[in-house]
């Protein structure tokens, strides 16, 4: 694997914990080049097949639930490598493949990259390097996927972007901090602060689509822990047997505030 400039333990961590795949999956029905999302027929066909997993009542619900999976598999490994390892790979949609992986009955797809030429920031130039990594993940991949999906399916880009945003926040505020020393944790927190304020062109948008959803966590009577209430509904309840089975942060829940964190 030429150009894969990672230590063995780093590769293991990215593949075992953050949804990076090194080899194609045997399940080709739900595996495909991410670039196929930009083709109307291929995109709708794929969401249709994924909908058999989600069992959503509408194609919009299935598209939103797929976007959650796609957000996580794209964001987790790329941004962890950037923030925790100071290493980057090409996450543009042309270089990415969706690889279908099952854990029992749970569908947990991964991302596989065609080219594996790793890069690191030059001394004193991490900020410029970080811009390139962020653009690769968002402007060159996620934004293009969301533009296509929202054009082919009656689902708002706001829903798709908030699906991505909630994972960015959760990963940076929780998972990415685990096992790191204080110096590296400070870099992780600094990167999150940057992401919610970064120039919108790095996301392929006119406004920063993460900052829109980043706000204080609120203590409510509906949750034991302070939460960041969503602005949009992801339609999870449309894939549940219970018509009121909402996500804990869903705006459809009556979140009567009991204080602000």
Describe the structure.
The protein is built from six helices and eight strands. The protein is an alpha+beta fold and 261 residues long. The protein folds into two domains: 8-214, Transferase(Phosphotransferase), domain 1 (Orthogonal Bundle), CATH 1.10.510; 216-260, no CATH class. The strands form three sheets. A four-stranded mixed β-sheet has the order 1-6-3-2. Strands 4-5 form a two-stranded antiparallel ribbon. The chain has a two-stranded antiparallel ribbon with strand order 7-8. β4 (102-103) and β5 form a beta hairpin. α2 (40-54) crosses α3, α3 (59-85) packs antiparallel against α4 (126-152) and α3 runs parallel beside α5. The termini are far apart. 36% of the residues are buried. The mean pLDDT is 92.
Q: What is the secondary structure topology, with strand pairs?
A:
Elements: H1 8-17, E1 20-21, E2 27-33, H2 40-54, H3 59-85, E3 96-100, E4 102-103, E5 106-107, E6 110-113, H4 126-152, H5 157-173, H6 182-195, E7 218-220, E8 257-260
Helix pairs in contact: 1-3, 2-3, 3-4, 3-5
Encode the helix/strand succession as letters: HEEHHEEEEHHHEE
Shape estimate: globular
Number of helices: 6
Helix percent band: 40-55%
Binned strand content = 5-15%
- Poorly predicted tracts of residues: none
The CATH topology assignment of the largest domain is Transferase(Phosphotransferase), domain 1
| Main β-sheet description | 4 strands, mixed
Order of strands in the sheet with most strands: 1-6-3-2
CATH class assignment of the largest domain: Mainly Alpha
Overall mean pLDDT: 92
Instruction: Indicate the CATH architecture of the largest domain.
Output: Orthogonal Bundle
Number of strands: 8
Our Rg estimate from Cα atoms comes to 18 Å
């Amino acid at each position: 694997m030429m150009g894969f400039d990672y230590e063995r333990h780093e590769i293991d961590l990215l593949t075992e914990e953050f949804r990076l795949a090194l080899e194609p999956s045997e399940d080709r029905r739900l595996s495909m080049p991410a670039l196929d999302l930009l083709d109307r027929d291929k995109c709708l066909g794929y969401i249709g097949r994924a909908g058999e997993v989600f069992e959503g009542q509408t194609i919009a619900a299935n598209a939103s639930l797929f976007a959650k999976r796609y957000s996580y598999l794209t964001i987790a490994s790329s941004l962890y490598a950037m923030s925790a390892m100071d290493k980057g790979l090409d996450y543009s949609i042309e270089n990415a493949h969706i690889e279908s992986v099952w854990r029992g009955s749970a569908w947990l797809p991964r991302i596989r990259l065609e080219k594996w030429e790793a890069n690191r920031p030059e001394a004193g130039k991490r900020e410029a390097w970080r811009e390139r990594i962020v653009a690769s993940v968002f402007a060159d991949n996620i934004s293009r996927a969301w533009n296509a999906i929202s054009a082919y399916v009656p689902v708002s880009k706001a829903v798709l972007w908030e699906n991505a945003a909630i994972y960015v926040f959760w990963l940076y505020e929780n998972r990415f901090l685990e096992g790191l020393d204080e110096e590296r944790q400070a870099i992780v927190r600094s990167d999150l602060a940057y992401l919610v304020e970064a120039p919108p062109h790095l996301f392929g948008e006119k406004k920063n689509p993460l900052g829109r959803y980043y706000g204080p966590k609120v203590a409510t009577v509906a949750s034991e822990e302070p939460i960041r209430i969503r602005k949009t509904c992801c339609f999870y309840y449309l894939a549940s047997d219970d018509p009121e089975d909402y996500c804990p942060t869903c705006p459809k829940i009556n979140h009567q505030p009991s204080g602000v964190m």
